[in-house]
Amino acid sequence: MYGNLLVFKVSASVLRLNRDHRGNDPNADTCSEVPLSEITGLLDQDKEYVGFATLPNQVHRKTVKKGFTFTLIVAGESGLGKSTLINSLFLTDLYKDRKVPNAEERINQTVDIVKHTISIEEKGIKLRLSIIDTPGFGDAVNNTESWKQIEDYIDQQFEQYFRDESGLNRRNIQDNRVHCCLYFISPFGHGLRPLDVECMKALHEKVNIVPILAKADSLTQAEVFRKKMKIREDIKHFGINVYQFPECDSDEDEDFKKQDQILKDSIPFAVIGSNVQVESKGRKFRGRIYPWGVVEVENPAHSDFLLLRNMLVRTHMQDLKDVTRETHYENYRAQCIQNMTRMVVQERKRRKMKRYTSLTHSVISSLTKLRRMQEVLERIQEQMQHSQRGGY
């Protein structure tokens, strides 16, 4: 009934702890003696310990309980392995019921926005992953402004978040802002195509663009190196702002700095995707079997798949979200506030002009009435004078 009750009995040299177990045995009384010096030492330590060092643990518990969200959009023409790579990255199958259009259907095909949302849990950490697919991009005969659907979708998510953030109930705001765009570049060309340039220039101020050199297994190592150099030159030449990895702090260890430099040098990531388990030399792995050999998806010598996955999930996912919040969304928010302020100023000017116009019309109307009254008085005076002359 009483539970476990601790009773302190202090003597000159020991602290006597009586643990009352009257709930089980009313006559039982277990005691333990602790030297008073030890208790005093513990109390002295507590005096020097405020406790705010536990704040990271508190934030960690709260964040883990709430879970994490991440939204990824993939763009690029059909046949570059977008779906396969996404399934390989997150070990899932998002495209079970996908229907591939034929050549006739692609002639006038428009870009669609298809959203897939899955919940992933790993070691007690929950992640709500949203993949935005863009089927039809770059497949039509006329691809003029085919990126407009993607641009509008990103702006719509910013607008929805801005409305929720400005509303009365801000407790459970759902973040659907796009944090990263994997843009797939065809390996069968010379650098960036005009469509790639225009699309990335339209999106680079709204989302973090990570360029992907697709189907790297169709190129030799020398060709991959030349393709990467050419794509980087085109990105710089056309002023495209792709995602920039943050600079390492001076206190970071050398291994971390080395890995960060490897990531920076790997742009664009030359990747291979596969959801098929193959066996070679007694090992099972995800890869592709060709007449000339076997390609391993997770072999750094064959592709940058591991670098891309580590960057997206293990090392830079939070930075992608931070850049989205602090840069892209803030730019959109500032533009919205500026537009709202401009509209308010214009409305004030319009109302002021309307009041001025109304006042002007009122003054003119009053002056007109006065002039008419004055003319009437003048006519009356003339008639009176004329009648007076006739009387004489």
TrEMBL record:
GO terms for cellular component: cytoplasm. One of its GO terms (biological process) is cell division. It holds the Pfam family Septin. GO terms for molecular function: GTP binding. Residues 66-339 form the Septin-type G domain. Keywords: Cell cycle, Cell division, Cytoplasm, GTP-binding, Nucleotide-binding. InterPro entries: G_SEPTIN_dom (IPR030379), P-loop_NTPase (IPR027417), Septin (IPR016491). The keyword Cytoplasm applies. The keyword Cell membrane does not apply. Signal peptide: none annotated. SUPFAM superfamilies: P-loop containing nucleoside triphosphate hydrolases. It is found in: Cytoplasm. Gene3D superfamilies: P-loop containing nucleotide triphosphate hydrolases. The record marks F188 as: Important for dimerization. It comes from the Eukaryota. Belongs to the TRAFAC class TrmE-Era-EngA-EngB-Septin-like GTPase superfamily. Septin GTPase family. This is Septin.
